[in-house]
Amino acid sequence: MTMVLVHRRHSRCRRWPHPLPLLSPSRLIETLSLIALCCLIQQYGIVGVHPFVIGMAGGKPGGWSSSSSGKLLQSSKNSDSLSDSINNSIDGLENDHAEEEQLEEVHNETNLQQSKTEQSNTKYIHGLLTTLESLLDKYIVSGSMATRRRAYNILQQIIRLSMDKELIRKAERMVRRSGMPMEMPPPLPPTEHVPAVDQQLEDEELHTQKIVKPMGAMIKSSLSSSPLPTEEEKQREIEVNKRLEWERKHKEKSEFMNKMKDNAPTTTLLNDPDVAKNRVEQLSSFAEDKKLLHDTMNGADLGASSPSSTTSSSSSTTSDISSDKTEPAFSDHDNIKRTVTDYNSIASAKSSELIARAGSGDAFLGSVLGVGGLDDVLSRIRRRVWIPLAAPPSLLSQLGIRPVRGLLLYGDPGCGKTLLARKLGDILSPARPITIVSGPEIMDKFVGSSEKNLRELFDNPPEIYHEYKKNYGEALSRQALHVIVLDEFDAIARRRGGSGGKGDQGDAGVARDSVVNQLLAKMDGVDVSGVPTLLIGLTNKPSLIDTALMRPGRFEVQIEVPKPRTTEQRIEILRVHTDSMARNGRVLVKDAPRDTAAWNVLQNMGEEGVQEAPTYDELLNIIAIECDGMSGASLAGVARAAASRALERAVTDFAGHLANDSAIEVKEEGEKRNSISDCVITQEDFERAIEDVFESSKGVDDYSASSTSDANSAKTTDNGAIDKES
Ligand SMILES: Nc1ncnc2c1ncn2[C@@H]1O[C@H](COP(=O)(O)OP(=O)(O)OP(=O)(O)O)[C@@H](O)[C@H]1O
Predict the structure, then answer these.
(1) How many domains does the chain have?
(2) Would the N or C end of the chain have less CB density within 10 A of its end CB?
(3) Which residues pair with 435 in a beta bridge?
């Protein structure tokens, strides 16, 4: 038996344990099978073991030998084919290894290249992500459509190019968090100019002009070439001439309008309300002219839109001041100087004029407004908020003053903050309805939605009232003040960064911070295109509001709406809520109006009863003393509860009579009376109502006490933040 050692040239293969795994499994099986076959045939024993080939030798010594190349050399006749096979196998093995090494190298190179590509892709995508982030920040602040378009394009690039799916997901998360809609933004509005498109439009316009103008001329020339024009043709010629003249005039107007859009504003503000009104009306007349021109150019009836009819229709819609002018609007040279800014200034002057009218005289008196015991508060609001809004804008700009943008009303629950804000809205926003929204309504569970809600609140003010729209049109729509009342303001304006600035409110805290940021941005007027807006924030907890919102220029005016402290204040509130009953003779008082229910009841009580009854003022005084410590809402509750006691008595009585078929009692001769017509509220009703309200509002009053201490610990400065006394 001979030990045959089969070598491999490759040094790596000489070590033990050698990489049998380098052989492909099929090759290994083939080799082993051949060796086993050899063993069986020649009946030799196993003679050699090699790390990668188990060699078998047998027969005569020297019948098998090893070569330097590691091949088995065969000298035996019987074993020719076998040794060939084995040698082939070994050749195959070596070739395999060479191929595998080559493959491995190629593979490594590819891997290297791929990782380089991935790295540079990741780097590029990170760049895009940074751009996207800054665009989204801008979008959160401005809500601008142009920014949204750019951000959307960047997002699409990331989705298209990123090799790393995680980066795509990250980009999408960023977009969702910003509140930007994922869908494609609407196409560019016509006001956004693209030079190439503009050029094309210009070319097209020139082309159309070429077609339109000769058409009129053609008709004219064809008419003039006719030897004997008929009556109809003459009429037609007049119409054509009129039309050509009309086109010329309106072309001038169009050029003027374009000039207004392109050029910088040139004129001063106009404060005279009549002039302002006139100018705004002229603008609307111009719009009408333009529409008629458009209709005519599109084939509307020539006669109906003839120059004479256009002028008369437009002048008939203008004010009486302009209607007595013989010259049509915009015909004199001065008008050419007007710009869009003029109309905005005029409308702005008109808006302040309307506010001035609404708040003049007794408008700020509590008794007129229906708000009791808050005359101090009302006079402060008048001075700080109404006066700058009612002043002519030109005067304000000369004085360097801007109307306030935010008013914070704070105080205990039920002290009349919402009531006051509503009434103020009527004075401060006479041209359009006010918007009242509760803080929690703005907050949305979806990331970015709260900011969006807030933006929409500012960006979509209600339309101005019809009569103003009719008279002053779009210009006033842009300039009339929009009053937004934010009830439960602390829900959206809480201090950022969680309590103590540690950001311990988790995701909800982060979301709320972003809402405050949005509010700050909106209040700072980043978006100059919006209508002027006054925010009125209402809260029971002023100390929770973010301090950045309190600085001058934002919620600059902060006023406490307190509980009624004196008997007089409570009397005023009670008077607001009982005035109607007393005037209608439903309160049993000595000075009840004649021939009312109360007066009739008094008559039946006799002289003594009348003497005992209090007057209306005395009754209010008695109740106000007994209601010490109550809020405005509780006092209103007392009035309601007393009335319902009297009503209960009367209805029960009446229903009983109905059941007995005696609903109508004859009290006196000829007079038909029943318990309903005798329904009056007595002093006793009020006293029992006070007990009821005290009983039912016990918990609320406890809460009031605690929040009073909170409010009291905060001291208001007239123009600035709320300072904690501690
Ligand atoms: N000063 C007041 N004069 C007349 N009525 C008042 C006054 N204060 C409160 N009321 C009555 O109480 C009701 C509730 O008041 P309001 O909702 O304005 O209080 P609030 O301060 O906004 O309370 P909250 O902080 O709980 O929202 C009012 O509708 C009104 O009928």
Answers:
(1) 5
(2) C
(3) 484
